[in-house]
Amino acid sequence: MAKATKPAKVKAADRIKPGAKLKVAKAAKKKVALPLPGGIKVKAAKPPKRIRKMEARVLRPLIVAPTGANAMMLDQLWQTVEQRRLAGDIVSSHSARLMARGTAKVAQKFGEEAVECVIEATLGNRDATVLESADVLYHLMVIWVDAGIRPEEVWAELARRQGISGIAEKAARPAGIIRAAGTSKLP
Asked: What's the whole-model pTM score?
């Protein structure tokens, strides 16, 4: 059996007081560059590839779509989906077929597209995010048509909220809504 050793005595000056911040010399933290012989140039460190890719994606200029593409497309898309619903041609219309399967299926499909959009955005795939965003907007229009919501109703709500702080709007919600939701974490 090994002999237990006694702990060394620590001087009062060397003890660290609980909660005290340790002071480290600034020079110890700083990397010191040694002088190089004359004429030798140092190549600057290149950022990691993932950082370069992210910067290229974020700093890429916004490419505006061809002429004729603007927010009015949403009103036109809603009208097309509404026409397909009224026609009820489930053989040749994806919109009509989707709505014929019921509101739960319409909502499920919207959720799937929203998740795909979030995944692409999280991965930093800009072009794929654009494509998935178009899918999300299309399926949102299908939800609106299925629920009998006209775009003007949503635009009016957005106009009503314009200039209102999201924080102030959340604070003004009735307590009953928060109790019914069963959470205080409403957006």
From this structure: 0.58
